[in-house]
Design a protein that fits this description.
This protein is mainly alpha-helical. It is about 40% helix and about 10% strand. The longest helix has 14 residues, at about 75-90.
Length: about 90
């Protein structure tokens, strides 16, 4: 519906369980694959994404992500950001 309403970008998720929010349901990687295949708008994967599962998100066709807990809960936030940046840039 967001696409039809003229959105400039969309959030896709939650992909995984999150440490910052509780969700009744997860959209999951299958939904991310469907969006990547069918929607041309910039799409940001959200929900429980961190460096350990980001490769799965990228393989699902997503090229962007929004994260918070992966950074703010890290003992070394700058390192967490750099690790995720490298994964995104390699993709």
């Amino acid at each position: 519906q967001a696409v039809l309403d003229g959105a400039n970008y969309i959030g896709v998720g939650p992909i995984f369980p999150s440490r910052t929010k509780d969700f009744d349901q997860l959209a999951g990687l299958d939904f991310a694959r469907a969006v990547a295949a069918e929607i041309s708008l910039p799409a940001f994967a959200i929900g429980g994404i961190h460096a350990g599962n980001l490769p799965e998100v990228l393989r699902a066709g997503m090229e962007r992500c929004a994260v918070s807990a992966a950074i703010i809960n890290s003992a070394e936030p700058a390192c967490a950001v750099e690790q995720m940046r490298k994964l995104l840039c390699r993709h």
